[in-house]
Amino acid sequence: MQLPLEDYLSNRRSVKIMDMKGEAPSISELQKIMRIASRTPDHGKIVPWRFCVLPQENRSSFCSLVEKATRNRYSDPSPETVEKELSPFKKNLGIIILIFSPVDHFKIPLWEQQLTCGAVGMNILHAAHAYGYVAQWLTGWISDDQTINAKLGLQEQEKIAGYFYIGNSDQKPEDRARPNMSEIITSWEG
Fold it and tell me: Does the predicted model carry a pTM greater than 0.90?
């Protein structure tokens, strides 16, 4: 049953990777999710983002890359630390990497391009949920690792905006504290 939009938006939650299981979205579904995510405000139609999909058949080599980066980041990491960093990539999940790819533009400032990329990220979550999946958007040190980013083909000006993990869950996600609206809304008095 499809929820009315207001109910959906009022109750949307991310699901932790550790709570995801079951079938991952197909490549075709991931392409649809990315197409929907791209329907975002984009001043100047400059598309300051791009996607990279981590297909299941390439995860082993990506895990090797993450393991090497983990060993470089931590001096003598424990097996538990290494496994913690690898575990999201070992699960049967769809993984989309959102890459912020700014465009040198005389009229569109960098911060507007960053907002556009963030809107694409939120749309990935919405699109995944619209297809009946759950999702989580994460960054962390792995998003800034230069060795991983070079292997992903990032150019000097590009940054990882997030890793999006998409799967299924039979658990209802727990809610988190939300802002007190009276503390974040003001009314301009002139």
Answer: yes
